[in-house]
User: Fold this.
Amino acid sequence: MSDQVGAGLRERKKLKTRATLVAVAAELCQRQGFDNTTVEQIAVAADVSPRTFSRYFPTKADVVAALAEDMDGYVAEALRRQPGGITAHEALLRAHLEIFAPRRGHESPAFTRMAVLISIVNGATSMSISPFTFKQRHAGASVEVLAERLGVRAGDPAVGLVADIWTLLFSSSFAGLGLPGHPPINSGILCERLSATFERFRRSWEPTPQATQHPARDVAPHASGPQR
Assistant:
């Protein structure tokens, strides 16, 4: 029994240390920028050694990407609630609009977490941090639900294709938000941009009616015989 209690305490301590590293990394990256934040700074602020940091996260990008862990659960739950008869991308759009919608006048937990990620990504110039970083590391439950909608296994290339396209649409929607000369990061602006980006994407695969018809050229009447 004592061994089980000891193991439980150690596990809780590990989870607490991990959560502290993620929170500290987010705070430092928001305050001084991802590019200017080092693993050593994160370790010192979390009161651990760089070696301890490396036991939890291989790189600085990994600890920031851990912020997306909760997001995957939010998306998966909302995605399950979407009706059939719509495309996978529209289901993803509806799911994100749902989880980002304000609750009783306050920003939702999902948007609050996403706002931190957007702030860090938009303020970084390093190629090591991007929306694809989060998708690759923490897209688990949502990928399973997406595969179910598509009627394939989670490892099917179709799932990866849909997810990659969505990541591109989503990142295009929040590009620049929060930076000088750009709109602030808030749920209303993000949802509006996301809907507009999706609409442009949707129109790109639908047949486009001709805006104008080429006027018919005058053609001389066919003469079946000599004119009189």
User: Anything to note?
Assistant: Residues 218-228 have pLDDT under 50 and may be disordered. The two ends are 117 Å apart (CA to CA). The chain has two domains: 9-58, 61-205. Residues 148 and 154 are 8 Å apart (CA to CA).
